[in-house]
Design goal:
Belongs to the UPF0749 family. Pfam families: DUF881. By secondary structure, the protein is an alpha+beta fold. 56% of the residues lie in helices and 20% in strands. It has a 5-stranded antiparallel sheet with strand order 3-2-7-1-8. The chain starts with a helix and ends with a helix.
């Protein structure tokens, strides 16, 4: 009988141990399930933040592209404005050069007009001397061909210059000059020479009028600016 109690005690002890172990195991599993749920919630939250940040980044990227396009358009506009301002400054410099406000140095050509060395007996002398019309024709041809500045016997011309002939003397802006008349022009010498020497052009016309013409290139022509009183006189 006493042996039966011992066996029953052992059975109850083992059963208690099994129940305790089962309870502990179930508790640990429940705890693991709870932790997994928390991790899942955290992972979901992290993924949501990443998705939200990706959307924000896409929006910012679109905004960046739009701003870059605006900057590009502004740069193009400034580039165009810069070119416009550059052209305006260049034009102003040219106009100041034309009116004689600025000194000028450059390559060009020199055209010398002289009266005929031989006048047939009985012919009119006026048909063999240089007149203002001859000088005008040369000057106009030079300006048309791109001359930046022109002078006659060192007298620089302006937009208000006047030239007239009085016998063998030509008056330029109030200053009288006898022949020969040296017309200096600053510009591309090749272009100016080609324009003067064109067949049937100004050189041929001057030769027909018995005017002696000499045309040559000049590597450096200097012209001083016109004084204010010179402009007032002209």
């Amino acid at each position: 009988m006493r042996g039966s109690y011992v066996i029953l005690s052992l059975v109850l002890l083992v059963l208690g141990f099994l129940i305790s172990y089962s309870y502990q195991l179930t508790k640990e599993r429940n705890q693991n399930r709870t932790i997994s749920a928390e991790q899942w919630d955290k992972e979901y939250e992290t993924r949501s933040l990443l998705i939200n940040n990706e959307e924000i980044n896409r929006d910012l990227q679109k905004e960046l592209y739009a701003k870059q396009e605006e900057v590009k358009q502004i740069e193009e506009s400034l580039k165009d404005q810069k070119q416009v301002y550059y052209n305006l400054v260049e034009d102003v410099e040219k106009y100041r050069m034309y009116v004689g406000d600025l000194p000028v140095v450059g390559k060009g050509v020199q055209v010398t007009l002289e009266d005929a060395s031989y006048i047939p007996e009985g012919d009119n002398v006026n048909n063999y001397i240089v007149h203002e019309s001859h000088i005008f024709n040369v000057i106009n041809e030079l300006y048309i061909s791109g001359a930046d500045a022109i002078s006659i016997n060192g007298q620089r011309l302006s937009s208000d210059s006047y030239i007239y002939c009085n016998g063998p003397v030509v008056t330029v802006d109030g200053n009288q000059f006898p022949a020969p008349f040296v017309i200096s022009a600053i510009g591309d010498p090749n272009v100016l020479l080609s324009a003067l020497n064109i067949a049937g052009g100004i050189i041929d016309q001057l030769a027909y009028d018995h005017i002696v013409v000499t045309v040559e290139k000049n590597e450096e022509i200097k012209m001083d600016p016109l004084l204010q009183e010179q402009k007032t006189q002209s």
